[in-house]
Fold this sequence. Notes:
It is globular and about 45 Å long. The chain contains 9 helices and no strands. The chain has helices spanning 18-23, 25-33, 37-45, 47-51, 58-66, 69-74, 79-88, 93-101, 105-113. By secondary structure, the chain is an all-alpha fold. The chain has a domain at 16-89: Protocatechuate 4,5-dioxygenase, Chain A, CATH 1.10.700. Helix 2 runs parallel beside helix 7 (79-88) and helix 8 packs across helix 9. The longest helix is centred in the middle third of the chain and has 10 residues, at 79-88. The mean pLDDT is 88.
Amino acid sequence: xxxxxxxxxxxxxxxxxxxxxxxxxxxxxxxxxxxxxxxxxxxxxxxxxxxxxxxxxxxxxxxxxxxxxxxxxxxxxxxxxxxxxxxxxxxxxxxxxxxxxxxxxxxxxxxxxxxxxxxxxxxxxxxxxxx
Length: 131
């Protein structure tokens, strides 16, 4: 039985629900493996070979290789698991969030200190048809 998901009408919003969890299971398991130093070293030594040990889709593997965190989330990645990829790269969560918004770390930090993203332009997808 399909569930009603009104949050799918909000642009730029990915809710980590049961469907996303199933879709991203192996991607998130890969990320969890990076908690161990020996796995981080193996990943850094040969990213592709390490990724190929996991039964992820090619799209998921490529998104990790590209460090395209937004795409990883679309493909079922959970941001808290994905943070381990950033940490492996020596990036802070703030740097990662900035990259996901197209901002520098400083721009992202300043925006958040001013109360977050401005509301202008944030609309429901169904309203786009009225433009």
